[in-house]
Specification:
Blueprint lengths: L1 E7 L15 H17 L5 E4 L3 H14 L5 E4 L8 H17 L6 H4 L3 H16 L12 H19 L4 E6 L1 H12 L3 H10 L5 E6 L9 E7 L1 H7 L8
Length: about 240
């Protein structure tokens, strides 16, 4: 059997000018996860990360904690997150036209209010998933994003073989896209999954004789027991 451990990066720097940077807590979360994997005894054959900075830094902290049990590491941009800035640029006008404007919301306040931003961004992600028209030509299509993640997993399985144990450090959207393929989720359920995935959490996929995603099994989802045992709920974050 092959087992893929999908790991969301540690807490990034939400609300700052550079989101793609781990916070001190994010580095601690990643180190705790690495220590957990080391003490758990299960050897990894490979650690793969996306090419974003928060992926790199999470992988670095994990490998440092794994010490002499650290596996080889590869970087694969198939596991990069969707471009949330491009999604906002594409669909902010639609949000303001349909919801923000009629409610008297000024565009500038969307980014200064955490709850308002989450509400607005959910709308924008849903619009992206439904392929609503926009004027941002550089935005990756939702279907292409899902295909990219799925193809990355397929290539990883083909390269590592049917008995591989691989950790993939990625982001919440990519993990949700993988679950969509395995569980046959609707876009609505995929969006809910995307928002529910903890930082430095572990989601496990099991592939038996078939390497097809629709035949895979979900062994575990969003596991953060390693964080809770190390410091309680104060170590568990979403962003």
């Amino acid at each position: 059997m092959a087992v893929i451990h999908l790991i969301r990066h540690g807490q990034a720097s939400f609300g700052s000018e550079d989101y793609d940077r781990l916070s001190p807590l994010g580095r601690r979360q990643a180190g705790i996860l690495g220590k957990h994997l080391r003490s758990n005894g299960g050897a990894l054959d490979l650690l793969v990360s996306g090419s974003l900075r928060r992926h790199h830094d999470t992988a670095d902290e994990m490998l440092g904690a794994l010490g002499d049990r650290a596996p080889d590491r590869h970087v694969n941009d198939a596991f990069n997150e969707y471009d949330h800035v491009a999604v906002i640029r594409a669909y902010m006008p639609l949000f303001m036209d349909r919801i923000g404007g009629p409610r008297g919301i000024e565009e500038g306040t969307v980014f200064s209010d955490h709850k308002l931003f989450e509400f607005a961004f959910r709308f924008m992600l849903k619009a992206w998933m439904e392929h609503l028209p926009h004027q941002h030509g550089a935005l990756e299509d939702w279907r292409d994003f899902c295909r990219r993640v799925g193809d990355g997993l397929s290539a990883l399985l083909a390269d590592q073989g049917p008995k591989a144990h691989v950790a993939v450090v990625t982001s919440g959207g990519a993990i949700a896209a993988a679950l969509r393929a395995v569980l046959g989720l609707s876009n609505k359920r995929t969006l809910s999954m995307n928002w529910s995935i903890y930082n430095a959490s572990v989601t496990q996929l099991y592939y038996g004789r078939s390497a097809r995603h629709e035949d895979a099994l979900l062994l575990g989802f969003n596991n953060v027991a390693h964080l809770e045992l190390s410091g309680g709920r104060k170590l568990v974050t979403f962003r």
